[in-house]
Specification:
The structure is a single chain. With 214 residues, the chain is of the alpha+beta class. It contains 9 helices and 5 strands; from the N terminus they run H-E-H-E-H-E-H-E-E-H-H-H-H-H. The protein starts with a helix and ends in a 21-residue tail after the last helix.
């Protein structure tokens, strides 16, 4: 017969997964009670940080369809269940881990999508969703339909976009430094091609006037 306490614990963890817009799995091994309290405070009122049993949590992740999290459930595990702004919670976890290296971010889920440790750190580098989307939309040379799609995109896709852009930026800067003259030539060519100033047409000669006979 199933243990009622274990059944209740699995149901509680499952409920927390369902209520959260994002979750982050961590290894807290070596952190003191005072440090864990500090971390809970930094996450804010809309997030909870709970130490969980791996065996019970595996049942919960299976119930909510997050089976990819199961391999991360090894060793001492604590989960940040985030119901508020995911970016702010990711910043709190990243900043805490910088001053407390014993906290290890394993991975997580955002908008139902699995995120790696690197993607969670990229999420922490972003600004709030409203500011981020405003900047991305303002910098896009795209149609209104593409801009609308951007505003409807899950934040997990935005985090992956930011991570991809961060990886490509050094290469783009290196290429720009290596060929500044080519870039300038391309810019001049593009400007000439898009110059809206019309070429003046040659003036027609005035029509000859005829004298009226008297």
């Amino acid at each position: 017969m199933p243990n009622p306490d274990k059944v209740g614990a699995v149901a509680e963890i499952t409920s927390r997964f369902n209520r959260s817009s994002a979750v982050v799995l961590t290894d807290y091994r070596g952190l003191t009670v005072a440090q864990l309290k500090e971390l809970r405070t930094s996450l804010g009122a809309t997030s909870t940080y709970a130490v969980v049993k791996n065996t019970l949590t595996k049942r919960a992740v299976s119930a909510v369809g997050y089976d990819d999290l199961a391999p991360l459930l090894i060793g001492p595990t604590a989960i940040a269940f985030i119901e508020g702004e995911p970016v702010e919670a990711a910043k709190a976890l990243r900043n805490f881990s910088r001053t407390n290296p014993l906290l290890i971010i394993k991975g997580g889920v955002l908008d139902g999508k699995m995120l790696s440790t690197e993607e969670i750190n990229s999420l922490a580098d972003l600004e709030s969703r409203e500011v981020l989307l405003g900047r991305l939309a303002g910098g896009m040379k795209a149609s209104l339909s593409k801009a609308a799609a951007l505003f409807q995109a899950p934040l997990s896709q935005v985090a992956r976009l930011a991570a991809a852009l961060a990886e490509k930026k050094p290469a783009a800067e290196a290429a720009s430094d290596a060929a500044p003259e080519a870039s300038a030539a391309e810019a001049a060519t593009e400007a000439a091609a898009t110059d809206p100033t019309p070429t003046p047409e040659p003036a027609e000669p005035p029509a000859a006037s005829a004298d009226t006979p008297s």
